[in-house]
Amino acid sequence: MAAMRTESVLILGGGLMGLALAHKLARRGSAVEVLSRRRNEAAGFVAAGMLAPHAEGLSGEQLRLGQVSLDLIPTWVNQIETDSGLCCGLRQCGIVVPFATASQRDLYPTAYLGETLDRSGLEREVPGIGPNWQAGLLFSQDGQIDNRRRLMRALETACVSLGVRFQEGVEVQEILRDGHTFRGVRMRNAEGEMHTLTSQKAVLCCGAWSAQLLPALAIVPVKGQMLSLQGPRDSLKRIVFGPGTYLVPREDGLLVVGATNEPEAGFMEGLTPFGQQQLQARIDTLLPEASQWPPMERWWGFRPCTPDGGPLLGRSSVDGLWLATGHHRNGVLLAAITAKLLDKCLGNQPLNKTEQQLLNAFRWDRFHEQD
């Protein structure tokens, strides 16, 4: 077994969180090495790219975390676009949440942060919306980013331009430690050879697979299936966030539709007829005319889910191994604040009061404290 040593910060996982943090660290001058099994399986490639802390009805510290990150995103995206020369597809397009009745609308956790809509308002914001919806909320402060086609590629390019080193096709098998101190990883490369790589610092960004390396983490995979349709350009200006399904329109008319919620599937790959039928039925209910638009692509992915739906950020049980994982359905939204917080932690930079409170709120062991 070959042994290697690096002075770089190891990023375990080459998805959105791994790339966002690698980019942030490299911008500050740190040497960074990303270990990735298959970047295209990462949730950052399969998500819809909604920036929706208000439309999702988040509350408490999760809402605050989302709002702080939403405020950071324009500057964060500008840095990525400057370093990569590529557009990330950021748009503050607003999100409409439809309801069957006004009373249901008024009970929504974030109703006080949105503009109330009646049926005529719904038809104005979402022409062609299904007849079952009689009320709604418009969150004009929320938006989207074209993560699948633009953001991920821009981040990869930006990281390369800043000297980030990538090892693709590498599967980390084990975290190496001396007592409670991180010492490196044992990994298998694409040729099946085993290697050890010693290092003093690493960040676990493996999403749904994180608990395979650190079993104490309360993270499970929740499978989601998605599809896209090609509609006319400008056919839908707002995102529609319906119950169990969302419709995310891109500027070129592509409509991203998601997502099923399949916690019982574990890591079972592939599309299922039932999952695709679910999506089609919900399209019929939300926007009937879209049922006639041609399908362009179908895919699936695994959300990293924790018991309360919030991420695991900051220190782990192993000194020198940090956590940026468990973001469930809000990874794209939370990438900016996650990268900022972990960059400060690894660089021993002072945290302001809000940052310290957020790290405390999303400690990995908060579920153990409740037992």
What does this structure look like?
With 371 residues, the protein is of the alpha/beta class. It folds into two domains: 2-85 and 148-217 and 308-370, 3-Layer(bba) Sandwich (FAD/NAD(P)-binding domain); 92-141 and 220-303, D-Amino Acid Oxidase, subunit A, domain 2 (D-Amino Acid Oxidase, Chain A, domain 2). It is 31% helix and 29% strand. The chain is built from eleven helices and 21 strands. It has helices at residues 16-27, 43-46, 60-84, 102-106, 119-125, 147-161, 210-213, 273-286, 331-346, 353-361, 366-370, and strands at residues 2-5, 9-12, 32-36, 50-51, 90-91, 95-99, 115-117, 135-139, 143-145, 165-168, 171-178, 181-188, 194-198, 202-204, 220-230, 239-242, 245-249, 254-258, 295-305, 312-315, 321-325. Strands 7-8-6-16-17-18-15-19 form an eight-stranded mixed sheet. A hairpin with a 5-residue loop joins strand 20 and strand 21 (321-325). It is globular and about 65 Å long. The model has no long low-confidence stretch (mean pLDDT 95).
Quick overview of this protein structure:
The chain is 31% helix and 29% strand. The chain has helices at residues 16-27, 43-46, 60-84, 102-106, 119-125, 147-161, 210-213, 273-286, 331-346, 353-361, 366-370; strands at 2-5, 9-12, 32-36, 50-51, 90-91, 95-99, 115-117, 135-139, 143-145, 165-168, 171-178, 181-188, 194-198, 202-204, 220-230, 239-242, 245-249, 254-258, 295-305, 312-315, 321-325.
